[in-house]
Specification:
Elements: E1 7-11, H1 13-22, H2 29-38, E2 43-47, H3 57-66, E3 71-75, H4 79-88, E4 92-95, H5 115-127, E5 131-136, H6 140-148, E6 153-157, H7 159-163, H8 166-186, E7 189-193, H9 201-205, E8 210-215, H10 217-226, H11 228-245
Parallel strand pairs: 1-2, 1-8, 2-3, 3-4, 4-5, 5-6, 6-7, 7-8
The structure holds pyridoxine-5'-phosphate.
């Protein structure tokens, strides 16, 4: 079987979190995007939240104009975000559920239950040539709902897998692999993200029908100790090794030759 390349999207939200702690311009998310590109990232992901707690409108402007990497704009399904996406025309947009009081995106979008609310946003983005994905739980019903909305891509929320241990983690991994296979069978491109780090990435990267991982918090945290290029470069190598080694277990053991 041909091994499909696995893209790495680096989420730079928390570079902006640190910058905003002092209200100045340092550290600059665009500079982080450039460093991530040098270290082997294929794309940049940024979440423009309703409350602008990290990424700002100006960041989106600078990232779409100034970065060589394609931008994946994470956004809530609101008219305001649709208008901003149409203004900046990022390469891709990932629609996520958003609650003001949450610390980070909790759980996936209810694409099945919110079809009518999502349809005009998905159509508006797609009509402008933006590649739309929905951030969903790894379940068949949500993938079918994304297909019904005409979305070319889904991103599976792998946070539960990252937080689980032992057998529960194995079960989560099976759920993700089954959902990724279902997406492929449905003709939908499958991405994954949320909570991934060096310890959890390999098993997800080894699932052959997943073609992109979006990783942020861990990388930016690790960058404090080793620098962003080292952190992204190490993640890149783990992903590439897992991909060439074949299926893994949740404990990180690969099925292929050592
Ligand atoms: N993908 C989506 C859709 C997200 O909302 C997030 C968090 O903003 C990520 C990936 C990255 O998650 P983390 O920061 O935990 O790596």
């Amino acid at each position: 079987m041909t091994v499909r390349p696995l893209r790495l999207g680096v989420n730079i939200d928390h570079v902006a979190t640190v910058r905003n702690a002092r209200g100045g311009v340092h550290p600059d998310p665009l500079r982080a995007a450039e460093a991530a590109a040098r270290a082997g990232a294929d794309g940049i992901t940024a979440h423009l939240r309703e409350d602008r707690r990290h990424i700002t409108d100006d960041d989106i402007l600078r990232l779409t104009r100034g970065s060589d990497l394609p931008l994946n704009l994470e956004m809530a399904a609101t008219d305001e975000m649709l208008r901003i996406a149409l203004q900046h025309l990022p390469h891709a947009a990932c629609i996520v559920p958003e609650k003001r009081e949450e610390r980070t995106t909790e759980g996936g979008l209810d694409a099945a239950g919110k079809h009518n609310q999502l349809a005009p946003i998905v159509n508006g983005l797609a009509g402008a040539g933006i590649r739309v994905s929905l951030f969903i739980e790894p379940v068949t019903e949500q993938i079918d709902a994304a297909a019904a909305l005409g979305c070319p891509v889904v991103e599976l929320h792998v946070g539960a897998y990252c937080e689980a241990t032992g057998e529960a983690r194995e079960r989560e991994l099976d759920r993700i692999a089954a959902a990724a296979a279902h997406a492929e069978a449905t003709g939908i491109e499958c991405h994954a993200g949320h909570g991934l780090g060096f310890e959890t990435v390999s098993a997800i990267a080894a699932i052959p029908t997943i073609v992109e991982l979006n990783i942020g918090h861990f990388l930016i945290g690790e960058a404090i100790f080793v620098g962003i290029e080292d952190a992204v470069g190490h993640m890149r190598r783990l992903m590439d090794n897992a991909r060439s080694d074949g299926p893994a277990t949740a404990s990180g053991d690969h099925g292929g030759d050592a």
